[in-house]
Amino acid sequence: MRQSTLLLNTLRESPAEAETASHEWLLRGGFIRQLAAGIYTYLPLGRRVLRKIEGMIREEMELIGVQEILMPALQPADLWKESGRYDVYGPELMRLSDRNEREFVLGPTHEEVITALVRDEMNSYRKLPVTLYQIQTKFRDERRPRFGLLRGREFVMKDAYSFDTDWEGLDRSYRKMYGAYERIFERMELNCRAVEADAGAIGGEGETHEFMALADIGEDTIASCTCCDYAANLEAAVGRDGAAPVVTSAEVPPREKILTPGIRTIDELAAGLQVKAQQIIKTLVYKADQQRVAVVVRGDHQVNELKVMKYLNSVSLEIVDPGALQELGLAPAGSIGPCGLQIPVLVDQEVASMGEGIAGGNEAGVHEIHVRPGRDFKLEQVGDFRSVTEGDRCLNCQQGRLQFSRGIELGHIFKLGTKYSEKLQAHYLNSSGQKQPMIMGCYGIGISRLLSAIAEQGHDDRGMIWPMPVAPFQVHLILISSKNEQQVQTADKLYAELVQHRIEVLYDDRNESAGVKFKDSDLIGIPLRITVGKNAEQGEVELAVRKNGHREFVSIDEVVNQVKAQVF
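Given the sequence above, the corresponding structure tokens read:
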């Protein structure tokens, strides 16, 4: 490609809307342009990177026998109602009606569509297992689109779905895809980690993993062990508190009420009684679907609402607002405790192991001291209901501690089980002629957000540094002076030779100053740069590596061979 004909406008200053480094350099380098909040046009350079990413994914899918299809982005709402997700998914689901008032959605994901397709096309165990995938544009009505391509309202995604006859088959399909994902991100030279995760709105009945690119601007927090390979999204991470209160066998005095007027928060209570927050028992009341429950955690811990929802198998969970507490006959917020509550009480395991603590007295401005779990309130529903904290002991190896880092979600794989096949009647006949639900898996990769993740990890203060496998071009050929006949002849000859050897080259043949060309080259971030300047008269050109800044003069006759050695 000759740069003089390329649709490319670089920006000298950082755009006002750029919130992250990746967003800034993708805009300044001429890869993307914003049309509306969370909606972007991919310019030729950006589209070339996307095609590289898509091609790499297609290669790995074919290696494990996955077949490509293409499903509609516009989906009948009836399918979503049949699966039960139409009302549950929330306002992020883009809904619309046609001229006949038939309801549709713009798909953020395709579980319903693929399940209906396989249900109608495959009805025998002889046709299973099968895994199908697509590369599709998806839609999500984000409340606050941000970070450029990382949180958009329209995005490109690879989603795959496996259908097996049993759970052992699903495990094989899952492991194949897990391995393919590891190879994909390794080929893209990403610093990536697979972590245990929560299934979220997609749901499922088995293990699930997220593949996270480590980056300070990541939307998710990863808890990982300092000694072993355990890692999990904060929503799903488990651990034991390394600084739990010491439990003694000494007799605990009967619980006693104390007046605490005006105290509503854990910090206020800890300061007023001169105790540590970990000595306090915190009780929060939630509405889980139509049921009210209390969740009890230590004062220095936070309730993990996803863990609570999973334990209760509830679709929704929201904290009961202060006004509704009185209607339920409960004390004001800040004075609620677990003793004597007439609603189900879920007790976090760290509270259950406390010898005693301080809790709300279930009267306004009253707390209780010497509250002993198991004696003063029942331990009928004990579980892991809190978010882990940094420094917690790792349960996987019992030796390490959990440390936190930020990550960008690149991919997510799920064992769905029969969540969709049962609701949408996707059955097959087994060898005995009996009807059985198909066992499903789901596997997604955010292709457009990969563009941002690679940019976030691969840039410096001058612009992009693309890894060779996904770079828009492999070589940037720069002609310093279009008025110097020797330089023009040399650059044209090298351009033709590079193209002949199937090397992807961007030839900057513009009538611009050397400074402009070098600044644009740094912004674009192509891995190798050949500069044809005044040394061309001595039979040399400069070969530079964008990643490490190495530069050297190379014979014109040898430079293509050196490039081939680095490209191939």
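The CA atoms of residues 96 and 166 lie 37 Å apart. Try to locate this feature in the token string yourself.
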